């Protein structure tokens, strides 16, 4: 298969985006000073959902259940999330934030909102909608190719 210039350019632009967002250093980075970026993503998704099953959380973060379970276990150990057994179906466990986790969640959301507000303001106004549309098209294409 011969790569076209636009395919090479897409790959390079995504690599640059990953570097700018720190994806490559994710294992070394921390969020709020004491949790990993993976735990940070999980904490945010739990906070946004208020209650979520382990399987739904794993699907949302595109991780397998065992990896998600280890991540949640670390958050439970740090008293940031808790597991609750559903009273109507004892086999079903939901994950929700503790009071401490709630504080971390709001701090993370505030910090990222501030950061992306600055990024958004840096994009020329005439191009802001185009950037959002293009990112959605890219996400849709990535999703189709993961199935």
Automatic annotation (TrEMBL):
Q: What is this protein called?
A: DNA-binding transcriptional regulator, MarR family
Top-level taxon of the source organism: Bacteria
Q: Which UniProt keywords apply?
A: DNA-binding, Transcription, Transcription regulation
According to the UniProt entry, its GO molecular function terms are: DNA binding; DNA-binding transcription factor activity
Q: What sequence ranges are listed for the domain HTH marR-type? A: 7-140
Report the SMART domains cross-referenced here.
HTH_MARR
């Amino acid at each position: 298969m011969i790569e076209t210039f636009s395919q090479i350019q897409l790959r390079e632009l995504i690599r640059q985006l990953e570097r700018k967002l720190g994806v490559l250093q994710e294992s070394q980075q921390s969020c709020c000073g004491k949790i990993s970026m993976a735990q940070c993503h999980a904490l945010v998704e739990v906070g946004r959902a208020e209650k979520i099953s382990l399987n739904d959380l794993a699907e949302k973060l595109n991780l397998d259940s065992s990896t998600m379970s280890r991540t949640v276990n670390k958050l439970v150990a740090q008293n940031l999330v808790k597991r609750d057994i559903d009273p109507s179906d004892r086999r079903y466990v939901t994950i929700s934030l503790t009071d401490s986790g709630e504080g971390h969640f709001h701090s993370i959301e505030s910090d990222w909102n501030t950061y992306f507000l600055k990024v958004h303001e840096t994009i020329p106004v005439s191009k802001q909608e185009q950037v959002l549309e293009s990112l959605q098209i890219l996400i849709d294409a990535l999703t189709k190719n993961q199935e």
